Amino acid sequence: LFVKFENATSNSNCIIYSVTGQQVYSNNFNSVTNNVIEINVETLATGVYFVEVNNSNGKQIAKFVKE
């Protein structure tokens, strides 16, 4: 999964939640190129998820579907 956020910076924290609100992934990214974060979602089950990116610029949330 490639996530592009206009405010993604180095030291961004990324959390993925299931549609039920359970945290299923968390990682800190020390290096971000062109506001894009690459996340391996291979181990996630098929379904709807929310990805949240937090850093010094604030928080952004996006929805995605893993097929």
Topology, element by element:
Blueprint: E1 2-4, E2 12-18, E3 23-29, E4 36-38, E5 47-55, E6 58-66
Antiparallel strand pairs: 1-4, 2-3, 2-5, 5-6
Give a written overview of the molecule:
Helix content is 0%, strand content 57%. With 67 residues, the protein is mainly β. A hairpin with a 2-residue loop joins β5 and β6 (58-66). The termini are close together. The mean pLDDT is 85.
> Which percent range describes the beta-strand content?
over 45%
Number of strands: 6
The unreliable regions are: none
- Radius of gyration from the alpha-carbon trace, in angstroms: 11 Å
Task: State the end-to-end distance.
Answer: 12 Å
Which class do the helix and strand fractions yield? Answer: mainly beta
For the residues shown, what is the average pLDDT? 85
Helix content: under 10%
> Largest beta sheet, briefly?
4 strands, antiparallel
User: Strand order across the biggest sheet?
Assistant: 3-2-5-6
- Series of H and E elements: EEEEEE
Shape: globular
- By DSSP (H or I, 4+ residues per run), the number of helices equals 0
Entry summary:
The chain has 67 residues and is an all-beta fold. It contains no helices and 6 strands.
Keywords:
67 residues, two-stranded antiparallel ribbon, single chain, mainly beta
